[in-house]
Amino acid sequence: SYLAKCCFPYLTSTDPACKIEVPERLTVSHETLVRTGLADRCVSVPVREATDAEILLAHSEEYLEAVKKTPYMSLEDLMEFTRQYGDVYFHPNIYHCAKLAAGAALQLVDSVMTGKVRNGMALVRPPGHHSMRSAANGFCVFNNVAIAAQYAKQKYGVQRVLIVDWDIHHGQGVQYCFEDDPSVLYFSWHRYEHQKFWPHLRDSDYDIVGKEKGAGFNINVPWNKVGMENGDYLSVFCHVLLPVAYEFCPDLVLVCAGFDSAIGDPEGEMCATPDVFAHLTHLLMNLAGGKLCAVLEGGYNLTSLVQSVCQTVQTLLGDPVPRPASLKSPCISALESLQCVRSAHKAYWSAIMISCLVNTVCALLSCLHDIILIPGSQICSGLALVPDVTKAMTSIVQHVTTVLSNRYNNLDLIKSYTFCSF
């Protein structure tokens, strides 16, 4: 495993929101990794600044040139410069630190892609996933993970990159960067509350699936209630992300590792315990031959942040994952979001389509108590030797529907099950 670390001073602002994005987020996390002996088990490589050419992989030249001027601005000018963007605050040192944050992510990609390490985590500030091509946003100056994805594609010829964003805020900067790019699959779950939660974007909803050739490669899972727990997170991973991810078959996995989705965070207001991130990490490590790079994003409760970082690093090091704590069935709101996402993406991913078809078959088979009287051969007789699994499953659904309608003469009931399941 690999550990990169960089930080910057307090930001310039009297806004209370600024006080949650503090240097202690990084220093306390790193100190805990050292104290627990986890840092000693990692390969620690000095960070470097990202070059202009690397930053321009995800940002416009005009924006880069504007940020370059910030070290020479007075505090008054910095405040004025800040006002043109949303929820971001500038310090005279921020340009230097933002280059280090992006550079740390690139160093991690280099280490993983060259085989020096199998996986790793970069502890960086400022975060990056809200930053857009020509705008800072949400504490983010340069989009560290978006730059890293483009860099991996350009330098190492990576064909397919999976970006998993488990931060509690939607990473709209990453989405906009890759929304028409089928070589990058972007998955984000985020507090949404029907667009009432920041960043209040219609583009954060489940039916925003990407554009043109990138249609289907953008997966948004909106949390429309607070208080989501471990079972809610794991159900979305198992029933949405993982089936699609295995079908996508990435060469590299990048994680926007925001821990404001953990219990106790003032931004997220969720109830998932830190140990769930060990399980999420472990599930992702089976993809891309284990090539996984996690880059810190949010996380504003220092207690849950530190615990979540440690759980993630321990798992990357190969330690056994703990038994899931307080594992319950997903709540109704989570299930609604999950089903909406699956419905929006079934046209793009056979894994989801097949799952929907299987659910339909199960619904058909369970809709009447004595359906077990239908001989298995009768169902099988409706199948030809179809090489396409989706077509085969469709044949099953059609045949079972026919059998049921002939036997029970209640086609309206059967159709209602079919349409609900699809």
UniProtKB/TrEMBL annotation:
It is found in: Nucleus. InterPro entries: HDACs (IPR000286), His_deacetylse_dom (IPR023801), His_deacetylse_dom_sf (IPR037138), Ureohydrolase_dom_sf (IPR023696). GO terms for cellular component: nucleus. Residues 21-315 form the Histone deacetylase domain. Pfam families: Hist_deacetyl (PF00850). Signal peptide: none annotated. One of its GO terms (biological process) is epigenetic regulation of gene expression. The keyword Hydrolase applies. GO terms for molecular function: deacetylase activity; hydrolase activity. Its main location: nucleus. Keywords: Hydrolase, Nucleus. Belongs to the histone deacetylase family. HD type 2 subfamily. This is Histone deacetylase domain-containing protein.
